[in-house]
Specification:
The protein has helices spanning about 45-50, 90-105, 110-125, 140-150, 175-190, 210-220, 235-245, 250-255, 275-285, 290-295, 305-310, 330-340, 350-355, 360-365, 390-395, 400-410, and strands at about 5-10, 25-35, 40-45, 60-70, 70-75, 130-135, 155-160, 160, 195-200, 225-230, 265-270, 285-290, 315, 380-385, 420-425, 425. It is globular and about 65 Å long. The two termini are about 30 Å apart. With about 425 residues, it is of the alpha/beta class. The structure holds guanine and zinc ion (ZN).
Length: about 425
């Protein structure tokens, strides 16, 4: 028996581009989203679809709302939740001062489980229904985040971090042990329900050539697992990589050399790249996570979306918490707009939505099952609520078009504007305030 959700509905069919092609989006002012057994049956105009439905179909109304596909976060660190918004450093100092000590606390499995649970709740409260997630070096950190996602039937990809040099001793694994642990986690979690595994070398600075090579071999053995790492985020980091790997043509070439540049490989940041890197990333099917709040907060640089898309690289938004400052893809899209503005590029609202939904699904090679409301896709969706704050209520009331309405929600909105988050057609109960 299908179930229906009635509201305004907006989703992307392809990348609207910098010129905001109108054929790339579909909008129903009075729309109906029809769901059965957790999948989308159809999205369309309410009057047309209602006339075809059995009279006793359950219809949930969200008057004044806007239904969009569930947000997809292409890069985030769950163990860094408790050090989000830590003052003052650029990447390498920030890692030493804040991130590594925070991750060392995950030696305690109970703490890992507690943070994983809160993290997943926070994602859902922000309308995020899928994410690609870093754990820590501890295998039980991956267990914790997978268990938290599975309990809510969320689609989630994660992995235990690999790091065997240039980091505190308590966070170090070694090449063989790291691979044995990763292999066991792949066998345990990859493809179980909606979960997927990502082989997760932190970045080329914290893995020896031996570990990068072993990671590449593991990736070759499991072509349908993901690879997840950082690339060319910070100038000092890029200089260090050039010093450590003088025989490689570029930072990306280090990963390529070890077999880590391929389809389903997702690289966070990609700020300091040349055209030749972009061409090889596109040719090999690698994807980029654009993490604007992190790039601004850590003073890392400005992501060149038009150059990446011109090279035909798959791109999606990432929050990169805790270098990033919000788990909200609305806030992240707002900062993406400003990053592009600073480079004299446009980010039309439809393209911002694309980067948080279908584009991100493409970057994760999940666009066959999520990212928009085409029939047969998994019914993950969010109901945006303009009345979530008095300011958004006032601004949206003055908006004439859906673009203007969504743009105001992106610029001004946050978790207060998420009225409901649905995972495979089921509403999630989420705690957004201490007294909720
Ligand atoms: N590069 C290597 N590790 C990290 C991390 O934890 N956060 C960010 N932003 N960049 C990294
Ligand atoms: Zn990161």
């Amino acid at each position: 028996m299908p179930e229906a959700f009635r509201s305004s509905i907006l989703h992307c069919l392809s990348d609207p581009g910098e010129a905001a092609s109108s054929s790339a989006v579909e909008y129903f002012e009075d729309g109906l989203l029809l769901v059965e057994d957790g999948d989308v049956v159809e999205a369309g105009p309410a009057d047309v679809l209602l006339s075809k439905l059995p009279e006793d179909t359950r219809v949930t109304d969200y008057p004044g709302g806007l239904i969009v596909p569930g947000f997809v976060d292409c890069h985030v660190h769950f163990p860094q939740l408790d050090i989000i918004a830590s003052y003052g450093e650029q990447l390498l100092d920030w890692l030493n001062r804040y991130a590594y000590p925070a991750e060392a606390r995950f030696a305690d499995p109970d703490y890992a489980r507690e943070v994983a649970d809160v993290f997943v709740e926070q994602m859902l409260a922000n309308g995020t229904t899928t994410a690609l997630v870093f754990g820590t070096v501890h295998p039980h950190s991956a267990d914790a985040i997978f268990e938290a996602a599975a309990a809510r039937n969320m689609r989630l990809i994660a992995g235990k971090v690999l790091m065997d040099c240039n980091c505190p001793a308590e966070l170090r694994d070694e090449a063989a042990g790291g691979m044995t642990a990763s292999r066991a986690l792949i066998e345990k979690w990859h493809g179980k329900g909606r979960l997927g595994y990502a082989i997760t070398p932190r970045f080329a600075l914290t893995s020896t050539p031996g570990q990068l090579q072993a990671a590449g071999q593991l990736a070759a053995e499991y072509p349908d697992v993901w690879v997840h790492t950082h690339l060319a985020e910070n100038r000092n980091e890029v200089d260090e990589i050039a010093r450590l790997f003088p025989e490689r043509a570029s930072y990306l070439d280090v990963y390529d050399h070890f077999g880590l540049l391929r389809e389903r490989a997702v690289f966070a940041h990609c700020l300091h790249m040349n055209d030749s890197d972009r061409a090889s990333m596109a040719a090999k099917g690698g994807a980029a996570a654009f993490c604007p709040t992190s790039n601004l907060f850590l003073g890392s640089g400005l992501f060149d979306l038009p150059a990446m898309r011109a090279a035909k690289i798959r791109c999606g938004l990432g929050t990169d918490v805790g270098g990033g400052t919000s788990l909200s893809l609305l806030r992240t899209a707002s900062e993406a707009y400003k990053v592009l503005h600073l480079q004299e590029h446009a980010l039309p609202v439809s393209r911002a939505l694309y980067l948080a939904t279908l584009g991100a699904a493409e970057a994760l090679y999940l666009d066959d099952c999520i990212g928009n409301f085409l029939p047969g896709k998994e019914a993950d969706f969010v109901v945006l609520d303009p009345t979530g704050s008095s300011l958004t209520a006032r601004r949206v009331a003055a908006a004439d078009t859906v673009d203007e309405k969504l743009f105001a929600l992106i610029m001004l909105g946050d978790d207060r504007n998420i009225a409901a988050t649905y995972v495979r057609g089921r509403r999630q109960s989420v705690a957004t305030s201490p007294d909720a």
